[in-house]
Design a protein that fits this description.
Layout lengths: L4 H24 L1 H8 L1 E6 L2 E2 L3 E3 L6 E2 L1 H13 L2 E6 L5 H6 L5 E7 L2 H4 L2 E3 L4 E10 L14 E5 L3 H9 L4 E5 L2 H9 L5 E5 H9 L5 E3 L5 E10 L3 H17 L1 H10 L22
Parallel strand pairs: 1-5, 1-6, 9-10, 9-11
Antiparallel strand pairs: 2-3, 3-4, 6-13, 7-13, 8-11, 8-12, 8-13
Helix pairs in contact: 3-9, 3-10
Length: 278
Amino acid sequence: MTLGFNMKKHLGLAAAVLSFAVCSSAHADRLADIKARGTLICATLTSSEPLGFSDPETRQVVGFDVDMCGAVAKQLGVKLEHKGVSVEARIPELTLGRVDLVSAALGYTKERAQQIEFTSAHYQTPIKLIAHSDGGFTKTDDLAEKRISANKGSTPELYARRAFPKATILTFQDTPAAFLALAQNKVQGLALSQPSGVRFVNESGGKYKFLDGSLAWEPTALGVKKDEPALLKAVNDALDKLEKSGEIDALWTKWFGPKTKFNIVREKKLTPISAFQS
């Protein structure tokens, strides 16, 4: 029995649609790819102590974000494959599918949420301004019309532009370069998160200080590519287990606690990202 032309056409179309749906489903399930591969490709910064930086003895990239990557990978039952990224490359590397997860001082913003998915926020920190102690500035608003440096593509850059539209914002590839601009008096202030800024203040011998006040209070989370609901849920479940077991607190204490030069308390615990989306 032969099929008519129209029947063949419809069956062919149906087969094509089914094939596309199957391929799309397989392509979209990155969690399955991770399980099959046996590794989680997780990106961190490489020059931002204590989040991700090169250990001078081992020359390996270590830090809180690196350990968070490892903890999530263990929860997923796979090994960690670490990848270093710059601030401005965090989101592109994720959207292009070159990494599975980003744990790189990734502050939540509505603009970023249009490009990637955010997990629950595992910590929150204030965005501060650092200035010369003898520069004559005491509070954040003193720099409203001054020159401010920041990492290119970072939330400190975003919040500085929002808070001070009349200021001149100079951006740099990494935190050391942005700090050098302050040290060389090319800018009057440096915008960055409190954890990133503590070492510059503490190690300066009183030369630099945090200005009173803050630009914003930033929730920080892990980043997942859009349209990967299984992976997003798995990472959120992993974070929930790590929070309940006390492991996130333990990692925070290891890198930020009272026995470190940072001595920052983790005041905010794991919080659903929906709490910041209103």
